Amino acid sequence: MHNVLHRVPALWEFHKVHHSTVEMDWLSNWRFHWIEIVVYQTVLYLPATLLGFSPAATFGCAVISTTLGHFAHANLRWHVGPLRYFINSPEMHVWHHVHPECGPQNRNFGISLSLWDWIFRTAYLPDRDPERLGTT
């Protein structure tokens, strides 16, 4: 779903609010347009509810996902070693927010898991920090 927010122009108009941050910290995870959260949460959690998952299980997934999102957006220099191929980390996700003039775009879409980025070849993890973040 996150990938779609970048590739569908109408959705990008909402999602780029999240990418406007110029300094990464865990609060960056809370920067979003309210329309984006309505669309995103509906697509993620309505099917789970319709498939019979309990509200408690769905809420538990939301809490875990939000916590992992805070971690990915944290201003930490933690290296997660071989786990980088499975879970998202601040050192990887910061490159998802790199300014267009300072690095490749449309990389590192994983919110909780980086596994999908490695599988679909959208992973990008150089041995340096980005020079600049944000969309402008």
Description:
It is a single chain. The protein has 136 residues and is mostly helical. The chain has one domain. Helices cover 43% and strands 0% of the residues. It is built from six helices and no strands. The protein has helices spanning 2-7, 9-15, 34-50, 55-73, 90-93, 115-119. The radius of gyration is 15 Å and the shape is globular.
Question: What is the strand and helix layout of this fold?
Answer:
Blueprint: H1 2-7, H2 9-15, H3 34-50, H4 55-73, H5 90-93, H6 115-119
Please tag this protein with its features.
0% strand, mainly alpha, 136 residues, 6 helices
TL;DR?
This protein has 136 residues and is an all-alpha fold.
